[in-house]
Amino acid sequence: MSVFLEFTIAKTAFTLGSVLAGSPPMSVELERIVPTGDSAMPFLWVTGDDFDAFERKVRGHEYVDDVIALDRVADSTLYRVIWYETHNDLIRGITEADGTILEGRAQGRWHFRVRFPDHDSLSQFSDFCTDRDLPIEIVRTYTELEDAEGLVQYGLSDEQRDALLLGLRRGYFDTPSRTSLDDLADELEISQQATSDRIRRGTEQILREALLLTEEGEE
Questions:
Q1: Which intervals hold domain Bacterioopsin transcriptional activator GAF and HTH associated (predicted)?
Q2: Mean pLDDT (whole number) for 130-158
Q3: Domain ranges in the chain?
Q4: Can you tell me the mean pLDDT for 89-118?
């Protein structure tokens, strides 16, 4: 059964993150990873307003042979990054363990959600990180069945779940709050009102499922 791993890692703690870190400040999201022999070729959606500076910075990295713009949509560009040589790093560890990156984006730290074919593959990736001192911070692991049961149990939409999880990770629900609704909206790339609605409706749904239905079942 498939196993999912969500984890974070500092931008400068792995090669791709280091290549993309620093100025100009651009929003980056992994679109897909294509294995190429002993290496892996990342495809990235990059959003911002200084693509020339971004391309110069990436091309100047010691491991990068070239970065090629493949497509442009509004203020975003799809890039392919070509490495000079192989290197033992995070992306390689994922591909060697047959992992599929479902989500990979930079939000202060990089956040990844990866699907592995089974627990053995997940263990292989974990050992890879340990052997190479890659400092990943695990957010959670779960099976496909557990993920489906969680969504069914609380009836959350994907959008509500994403907004609530981001709020928890950024400390929005802490007292005092460690982030603002505006900051969450910027990361989700939606309006402040839409972010507020997702958090409010998601919270209401969880409370209904966890409290009202439990109370009714005890009557």
A1: 3-133
A2: 73
A3: 3-146, 155-218
A4: 86
Cis (ω within 30 of 0) for the bond into 135? no
C-alpha of 117 from chain center: 19
Residues 18-31: tens digit of each pLDDT: 888 877 778 888 87
3-state secondary structure of 62: coil
Element (H, E) at 168: helix 158-170
pLDDT at 74: 74
pTM higher than 0.85, yes or no? no
Q: 10 Å Cβ neighbour count for 154?
A: 17
Helical axes 158-170 vs 181-188, angle rounded to 10°: 130
201 close to 160: Cβ distance less than 8 angstroms: yes
C-alpha to C-alpha distances, 160 to 45, 62, 68, 117, 192, nearest whole angstrom: 23, 41, 35, 27, 14
Residue carrying the six token digits 């209904």: 208
The contacts of residue 160 (CB under 8 Å, 6+ apart) are: 198, 199, 201, 202, 205
151 Cβ partners below 8 Å, 6+ apart?
Answer: 161
Is the N-terminal amide bond of 24 cis, ω within 30° of 0?
yes
Contacts of 212 (CB under 8 A, 6+ apart): none
Average pLDDT of the chain is 82
Distance CA 58, CA 78 (A): 14
